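Why do we bother with holo predictions? Because pocket geometry can differ from the apo form. Keep that in mind while you read this record for zinc ion.
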Amino acid sequence: MGIRDFLSEKIQKVNVIGKKEIDENLWMKCTSCGEVNYHREVAKSLNTCPKCGKHFIISAMEKINIIVDKGSFQEIDSNLRSLDPLKFRDSKKYPDRVKAAIKKTKMNDAFLSGIGRINGRPVHIGAYEFSFLGGSMGSVVGEKIVRLIESAIDNNQHVITLSCSGGARMQESILSLMQMAKTSAALVKLRKAGLAHISMLTDPTTGGVTASYAMLGDVNIAEPGSLICFAGPRVIEQTIRQTLPEGFQRAEFLLEHGMVDMVLPRSEWKGTLSNLLDFFG
Amino acid sequence: MSMTTLDFEAPILEIESRIDEIKNVSGLGAGEIDAELKSLEDKLTKLKANIYKKLTPPQKVLVARHPNRPYTLDYINSIFTDFVELHGDRLYRDDPAIICGTAKLNGDPVLVMGHQKGRNTKENIHRNFGMANPEGYRKAQRMFKMAETFNRPIVTFVDTPGAYPGIGAEERGQAEAIAKSLMVMAELTVPMVTIITGEGGSGGALGIAMGNRVAMLEHSIYAVISPEGCASILWKDPAYAGKAAEALKLTAQDLKEQKIIDEIISEPAGGAHRDYDLISSRVKDFILRALSDLKKMDREKIFEDRYQKFRAMGVFAE
Ligand SMILES: [Zn+2]
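The structure, written out:
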């Protein structure tokens, strides 16, 4: 095996970011620009490509850690677990899919929530774990978002959500649809309490998640290059039988069309959130 | 309007055409015709009841989408008086896929709204098959707020395959439009009553469906995704739509069992499309009962009643 083959094999192995087994000294090839970077360089730039700025998908905990003061995060509602009220089965049973996701992510469902501090100021914050069933919103995710908002009201703190989701969880059918109503309604109470919701839309945020609380931030902030939409590109292409224009439904497209307040790289998240929180008081 | 027949309705059609034939035959004694007719009509009633009692979820999907099913305008015309249609979102355009306006219910002013499908190709192009663009939801928000200002109850009729998935819809913020509608409905302190009359297609349906009281017609459906869409994603093949329809538990009976809806409005024998007057009177009865119940609450209570209804939805362990 030549050195080139050896390297390309290694590169392929580390193409997916976030795996613990990745050696700090290895290389990775950017899925966007194709450039090869040291993994430690990528990690240092908050899991973005040092060459093109591509933001790779990272875990819920990693996102929260970019924002909150070191060691300040305390998880709440970690015990909530999905049930299978519809006895849903496609090629696999829904409970088996959940079990596999719990094993893979060491989380009970697709949303991590709690209380943390940003430059000393306490906030309520929650983030999706995309590797848990595509970050889909079912009963547990909806309930955890509402509880996060309710706890924020009780503690007089603002709420930051970091969305990253394939949309509603089909295996819970109507129950997952109703999470859209439930989470949006909770924001009415947050607003009545004079508290803010800052919605961070990260790659990808789609379907019923976008079409509910995630688009209802007092401020909406998008991650560079992220897909943010209601209907996914494939569904639209099938409906209109046309290829979609370059950059359609990406963060920058949403900024141009007035749907988000800004497109903000991870390196600027904490500073900007801190400034916004000063305004919200 | 021409009558479309679904496969499982064929035996019904057969007897109906025999009844028509006999009615047209002359030469028999009046008594004989009457007896024959009566027996056939009895048979027809039993057959309709039997076929419709045993509909499978995929068959219910077909009935919910039946091209002869009564649509929102049919209900508005038979249940309300003095309907004044109001148009436009004041931002971009009018969306004919959602209609709304002021009307009177037994003399009392109400706001009525619903998805509107077309009866033929031309109408369906105009109505976009009942699939709203963002402007539909923004028009709805405008109307909800107007009802709130003037303290009038709201009645919504839901019948849509879903919100429209198109380039323009995405550019103009379909997600934001639906999301904002949810928030505006959640804020209302006036009574709101919702009836799922045909297809309750996902967020596009929910966008006008946050009633304090929600009912479904006996053969209507309501789900997070269409059976075809679900089959494409989970089975990687839309041909599995029948299986998906079973799995999604999308019938009125399923939703009642899950406590997502308050009531099932029973349909005339053979489906709502066979007797517009009868189904309309049953829908009207539901609306009147629901509103008279809600009128006993003060405005803050009406808000809280709706909040707690949706707050309670979800099944999980802890
Ligand atoms: Zn790159």
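Residues 7-54 of chain B form one domain.
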